[in-house]
Amino acid sequence: MSSAARGTSAPDAAERPREEWTGQLGFILAAIGSAVGLGNIWRFPGVAYENGGGAFLIPYLVALITAGIPILFLDYAIGHRFRGAAPTAFRRLGGPRHGRWLEGLGWFQVAIAFVIGLYYTAVIAWAASFFIFSFDLRWGDDTQAFLLNDYLQVGEPGFSLEFVPGVLIPLAIVWIAVIAVLAAGVAKGIQRANLIFLPLLVVAFLILVVRALFLDGAADGLNALFTPDWAALANPDVWIAAYSQIFFSLSIAFGIMITYASYRRRRANLTGPGLVVAFSNSSFEILAGIGVFATLGFFAFEQNVSVADLEGLTGVGLSFITFPAIVSQMPGGPIFGALFFGSLVMAGFTSLLSVLQVVSAAIQEKTGLSPRRAAVALGVVSAILSILLFSTTTGLIALDTTDHWANNIGIVASAIATSVLVIWVLRKGGELRFHLNAVSTFRVGRVWVFLVGGLAPVVLTYMLVTRIIALLIDGYEGYPGEYLAVVGWGTVLLLVVAAVVLPLVPWKRRPDDFTAWPPVDEASATTLLARRKDAR
């Protein structure tokens, strides 16, 4: 096969062949490892409970089918067809006329991943610490005071250089581990890590769920989660919550799946594995809901209250305040705690690798650095910033604020821009649909283009506008307006600056000498589809 057919220029191919997953299984496990993260465990159960219980599964599945899977396929198609990280892929997609400015969208996504990587590492460090704390129940009777005062030593909103050793040390260890895995490359590093951690995560969480189901009050917890409130389906906010959950849990629209798909071989199935990834992610979320609410049912039973009276059912409060309190009261608590926090570490670590690979791959392609050098450069800079921002007494507040703006503003805006620019401005929907069908077993029709270019941006625009209005009017968590302006809106400004400035940096090897494969013309399409039919 010629270099043009492979979608690479001859000089690039000669200097350094593009890394690839060793096979379909490696790609699927890595993609699932990216999708299954902290949000599956600490966000989905609470969101489902607060938005109709069992009835929430209906808008959840609708959102998965109409937005989650279509945008996942869009990311796959862009990355696989144009063979690069987000900036490279978008530049090639735009072609000679539009590639230069479309590259900025890729750098916007890379900047999102960079920001998320800085604080996501801190949460993994917390989970690793609490894994150790589980064995002697070090948090004592007042888990909230232990987290906020003893462990994180939370101060007032602002910027502090008063470091917290209990956070700094595990945070540094996590960064060392991340750099080592990324430096080993795609197949020997990321894929191998997922081959180890993902099965361990599933086994550990299954053990945790089975144990939780046999606790006193577990049935009450499951009833609280799954009893349907059908009236909730008439509330538009419930549907928006479903789209939001699907959107944030699949690792879409900020470069991850574009980058991961670019490492697949040219003749590689995309849509079939995509369905496996999407439904595996949702299955784990439901499993997490069962485990979390069975455990919460036990806690309510011990407190002699209903599940509805409990606080801290999502996020940091659920994981680091409510769950430690539960662990302290249950038989075999230390083992249960170790399983839970160990699961958080493994789920978070595999997701973190995917987030940082977005940045590392973009650096490699822009500068010509090897995977090892790019990983070390990225890791050192990120580790310094992460430690300065999130291992101090102001770390929790900075993390909470940055996370809210990066996800609710940055990622949603990125998804809207991608859908509108690719489908409406550049009219690439037909080409990308052809590409998916040319290499995949599960074919997508024109309805896919409608979902990506029509329904998804409408829903996401509503989400983005309502969130911006709420933040401007109500602020966030009672934090001072000046602080939110610097940390929250400053994060968005950073993303925009990256999108404008980084395309101006010269490429070590220009990515424009590129021919997408397979070519989109009637003769090539007929030949390729005939070969697929003969192969089956």
Question: Overall mean pLDDT score?
Answer: 93
- Structural class by helix and strand composition: mainly alpha
The radius of gyration over CA amounts to 23 Å
- Listing every helix as H and every strand as E from the N terminus to the C terminus, the arrangement reads HHHHHHHHHHHHHHHHHHHHHH
Shape: globular
What proportion strand? under 5%
**How would you classify the quaternary structure?**
single chain
Number of E-type strands = 0
Architecture in CATH?
A: Up-down Bundle
- Counting structural domains, the number is 1
Give the CATH level 1 class. Mainly Alpha
Number of distinct helices: 22
- Summarize the main sheet: none
The CA-CA distance between the termini, in Å, is 22 Å
Reported by name, the CATH topology is Amino acid/polyamine transporter I
Q: Low-confidence spans: pLDDT under 50, at least 5 residues?
A: 1-15
GO cellular component, one term: membrane
Keywords: Membrane, Transmembrane, Transmembrane helix, Transport
Transmembrane segments: 21-42, 54-74, 107-133, 167-187, 194-214, 238-263, 275-301, 335-363, 375-399, 405-426, 447-471, 483-505
Main location: membrane
